[in-house]
Amino acid sequence: MSYPTLLRSAASWSPARTILLLVGLAAATMGDSCTPPPPPFDQQLLVNPGFEEPALAPWGVEYGSCTVAREPFADADPHAGSALLHGGYEGSVSSCRVWQDVGAGAFAIGIDFGTVSLEASAWLRSWLNVNNFDDQMLMRVRYLDDLGRELSSIRTLVSGDDAWLLREASGLIPPKTRRLRFELEARHRSGADNDGMADDASVIFRSATAADPVITKLPMLQDFRRDAMTLLWETDSNLANHVVEWGPAGGLLSQTVSLVETTRIDATHYVHKATIEGLSAQTEYDYRVKSGTTTSGVYRFRTAPSPSGSVEIVWLADNQNGPGVFSSHVAHIAARDPDLLFVAGDIVHGTLTDGVLGGSVLSEWQTQWWNPLTVSNLAQTTPVLIARGNHDGEHPYSYAYTALPENESWYSFTYGNTFIVALDTETPTGQQTSQNDQLTYLQQALASPEAAAAEFKIVVFHRPPWTRLWDLTGIFTGYNGETWVRNDWAPIMEAAGVDLVICGHSHSYQRGVRNGTHYLIVGGGGGALDTFNRPAGSGWPTFQVVQSTHHYNLMETNGNVLTWTTRDQNDAVVDSFQIVH
Q1: Percentage of the residues of the chain whose pLDDT score is greater than 90
Q2: What is the bridge-based pairing of β-strands 269-277 and 228-235?
């Protein structure tokens, strides 16, 4: 086909195709005698996407134990064909990641003009069904510039089920992208094998037109650091570039964070995560998020206190199914301007799936979690952290809508003069490999130099070791707390001199002391209250307070004094105490 014929044909093409054609023609007039082919839109660009070739190549193994599984299959049949990618088997098992690069230089002008998008997908699965703590597989695409530096990325939800699920990620390719790195990551979290699995991956370029999305969830701060702040927000589409603009409080928003990771929930829900770095302790900053030309308001946050600084943390749990009550708490909390809000699980209600509760109702992440936290712009100005509960715990939505550190299930950190360990009672303990076991983690965290240097030590998780208030019947008849928590964790916490153990699960307020450790249940965040008071049993703490009331709790530390104040829905004080070292 001659150049004039190609140009006439281009009249019906999209702007992106026309731009790329002109690039090809320009190259040809500079010495290439061959007519360039049309741009490869709408075509599979990965090589060996189903892992059917004898070797894993051209996939590279960045780290870990990923392998190609063939017949006989130990964990699952492939989605299609005769092979699948498996996270690794007992003996050398670990988390792992494989990758394959896709060149984008031929699309340079179209990409820089915002007329090329990407559609990527893979079939993913796990060993256990939804809402169980299990190994996770996810797919990610990193956009790289001509020097191999990451510009931003898109990723899928984690696998999260024992059936093959098509997980997708899509969006406008950011300017200056010259190469894509397609990754499949299997996170080993449970058992002797890494049972994260993937098959039939795909990368396709599309002709696109940039479009400004609607911000459907305002930014939420989720961080505990003195020198950084992580935030999440959501839009209804992804044909746009996303940034965070920030600067010192009261000044210009002169700094920009463009390294944003976008998780596709579905075709109208895209969650964006970014981190502002290089900050100073206990200092205020202004910021806003921008998706295309759509911008949020300008908000102000304060970084975490210095190690010698005083601390104000609000604690609550079990706000699920009670957005009205939760919103009233948030209004009172915002007026007190704390440093941090910590919710000890059950932040949404979810539905019963395969006999397990989980945060599977997408709309609840808006109505029960995000919306109440926008009262007085609390989550936009105050960091919010969680410990995973049984209602939200292991569903893929819960990982998409939170930005927790370490393995995203349990973690520890120093906040001012206080050391905090957050655990996950939705997974077994003492039964995993050492790198995945919470029992080992708890012991090591409480024996760490950070814990030793802190004035106060706190452990927070959802299901309590003891409870007096509980209403559910049937399989829950006689429930008085988690036996394994009081047998495995309580002795470790008490021996380490933990000051506070903070839990939820029972929708009530309870306080007692055992061997010098204060045990608190703070499940009055909004859910229907428990009212049935069970008799105390052997080995229980001496419960000084047992109240069926909605409430929130303000903890203040100043030097060697910790002050705790519990307030009801009307902001009236219902309990208070002090710990003095």
Answers
A1: 78
A2: antiparallel
**Residues 3 and 196: beta-carbon distance below 8 Å:** no
Euclidean distance between CA atoms 241 and 115, whole angstroms: 12
Confirm if 270 and 217 have CB atoms less than 8 A apart: no
d(C-alpha 183, C-alpha 164), whole Å: 18
List Cα–Cα distances, 127 to 195, 198, 313, 554, in angstroms.
6, 12, 38, 41
Burial classification of residue 363, based on how many CB atoms lie within 10 Å of its CB (0-12 exposed, 13-18 middle, 19 or more buried): exposed
Write down the pLDDT at residue 435: 61
Angle, CA of 117, 294 and 268, to the nearest 5°: 55
* CA proximity to 469, closest of 426, 528, 517, 411: 528
8-state DSSP, 365: I
Q: Given CA atoms 257, 263, 269, 271 in this order, what sign does their dihedral have?
A: negative
| pLDDT 10s digits, 260-274 | 999 999 999 999 999
Q: Which two tokens stand for residue 278?
A: 């290089």
What the chain holds in terms of domains, given with CATH numbers, is 1-38 (no CATH), 60-207 (2.60.120.260), 215-302 (2.60.40.380), 311-580 (3.60.21.10)
The CB density around residue 55, as the number of other CB atoms within 10 Å, is 9
3-class SS letters over 50-114: CCCCCCCCCCEEEECCCEEEECCCCCCCCCCCCEEEEEECCCCCCCEEEEEEEECHHHHHHHHCC
Provide DSSP, 307-340: TTS-EEEEEE---TT-HHHHHHHHHHHHHH--SE
CA dist 216 and 523 (Å) reads 28
